[in-house]
Design brief:
Belongs to the universal stress protein A family. It holds the Pfam family Usp. Residues 3-152, 233-281 form the UspA domain. This protein is an alpha/beta fold. It folds into 2 domains: 5-143, HUPs (Rossmann fold, 3-Layer(aba) Sandwich); 159-283, 3-Layer(aba) Sandwich (Rossmann fold), CATH 3.40.50.620. The chain has helices spanning 14-30, 67-85, 102-112, 127-132, 136-143, 174-187, 205-218, 234-245, 259-265, 268-275; strands at residues 5-9, 33-40, 93-99, 117-121, 148-151, 162-166, 190-197, 224-230, 249-253, 280-283. The protein has a 10-stranded mixed beta sheet, sandwiched between helices. Helix 1 (14-30) links the parallel strand 1 and strand 2. The longest helix is centred in the first third of the chain and has 19 residues, at 67-85. The radius of gyration is 21 Å and the shape is elongated. Mean pLDDT is 81; it is low at 44-60, 125-134 and 256-266.
């Protein structure tokens, strides 16, 4: 597997620009094309949320009245995207402006554009907002049929020397393994395989190391270390291990649960993506 198409959703925020910096760094290494996507929420004609859409304090049931506004909005947005593109000379970037709901359109765009990797900026959310609302990034991780690289901070230049792959090392899909190997080889990085051992899932260090070693040898990995890490929870253990190592990137798989299943069981990968300050690539169950 190779990375040929990278999708970067942008709202022109600092976080999305940080994501574009990282995507550009990957594109230079892989000769990939970046699709820079800005999605505008679809106006609902006559809805109170759009009362002041023309700055006149009134609405209309005639969709034709909204067309000049939408055309102007597209024109202004494309100008902004062109300005962003000029900052990344030597990187193949195509811009896209769409009226839709962000998560839904990204899920559709990934299939249409044959996206290999999504790179998204994120602030992360916590507390009651995390339980009730979540974040755009978290929802994309759950739904998109492509790996998602979450970026929290400005990282320039983007280099990978140490990559953490945290897993149970059971039933890891072939495409996930291929992409891990591709990224490791492309950047010449060392892979650090780790399984976090908590009080609720205790196993001996010897058993853990044998499991990971068998995984690495079966899939013919080179330049790697084998690690078990004891901590109170898997999410905190992964973050702590990555901090101790000063890792440049974390990689994880997620079940991509939705609805009540997500509320009850959650996802360790989504938790790490939400709270870790380091970049993290998540592979969900749709990535097959």
């Amino acid at each position: 597997m190779e990375i040929k198409k990278i999708l970067v959703p942008t709202d022109f925020s600092e976080e999305s620009m940080n994501a574009l910096d990282v995507a550009a760094g990957i594109a230079k290494k892989t000769n990939a094309e970046i699709s820079l996507l800005h999605v505008i929420d679809v106006p609902v004609v006559g809805h109170s949320d759009y009362v002041d859409i023309f700055g006149q304090g009134e609405t209309s049931d005639d969709p034709e009245l909204y067309k000049p506004y939408m055309h102007k909005l597209i024109e202004v947005t494309r100008d902004k995207l062109e300005g962003v593109k000029k900052k990344y000379q030597g990187v193949n970037i195509t811009e896209h402006v769409e009226f839709d709901r962000l998560q839904r359109h990204i899920a559709e765009f990934v299939i249409k554009d044959e996206t290999d990797l999504i790179v998204m900026g994120s602030k992360g959310v916590s507390g009651i907002e995390e339980i009730l609302v979540g974040s755009n990034t978290e929802r994309v991780i759950r739904l998109a049929k492509a790996p998602v690289l979450t970026v929290k901070q400005k990282i320039k230049p983007f280099e990978l020397k140490n990559i953490v792959f945290a897993s149970l090392f059971e039933k890891v899909h072939t495409k996930t393994i291929e992409l891990i190997r591709y990224i490791q080889t492309t950047f010449g990085a060392t892979l650090h395989f780790v399984k976090v051992i908590t009080p609720n899932n205790f196993e001996t260090t010897s058993d853990t190391h044998q499991l990971i070693q068998k995984f690495a040898q079966t899939h013919k990995f080179d330049n790697y270390t084998v690690n078990s890490y004891n901590f109170y929870s898997e999410e905190e253990g992964i973050r702590s291990f990555s901090n101790d190592l000063n890792a440049d990137l974390i990689m994880m798989t997620t079940h991509g649960r939705t609805g009540i299943g997500h509320l009850l069981l959650g996802s360790i990968a989504e938790e790490v993506a939400n709270h870790a300050t380091r970049p993290i690539i998540t592979f969900n169950q749709h990535f097959k």
